[in-house]
Every structure is written in structure tokens, then in C-alpha cells.
Amino acid sequence: MIEFDPTRPKWAQIADVLRARITSSEYPPHTLISEVQLEREFGVARTTIRKATAALRDAGLITTTPGMGSFVAEYRPTDTAEENGTAN
What we know:
Helices cover about 45% and strands about 10% of the residues. Strands 1-3-2 form a 3-stranded antiparallel sheet. By secondary structure, it is an alpha+beta fold.
């Protein structure tokens, strides 16, 4: 369990941890994101985990299939400077 910062919502802090795991390939593409396991790991309610996974889904880091669960999406790091047209 992590020590939560009382000035930030728990779901946002959990989303940050999961985002780091995904981008570092600790959670490779197609890994199941288990809500039950995350509830136990972080010691929070299912609604908190669902808010965190919703943020990851909105960011395109996970996909959710009804009846199957949430899985890590294919992650492709991009150069944001090139995307914004500011690259030299």
C-alpha cells in the first residue's frame, strides 16, 4: 500500500502509479488490470479504482471490454515536440 498525499484525490495518485507502470513496461500491452487486485494493493474502494482506470482509459493507456475487463493498450511513446510542430 502506498502512503497517499492528503492534498490530492486517491484515484489520481493511483492513476499516476499505474501510468508509470504502463509507460515503463512493468505492465506490458494486453496485461489485465484487475480491479480486485488493485483494491487490495491500494486499500481503497472499487469506486476509487474505477475512477483511476477511467482516467487511464481517457488517456488511451487502457481499453475496457465489457465482460472481459480492462487491459493495457499498445503503448507507443511519441515525441510531443514533433506532434506539436515545434521540432527543429
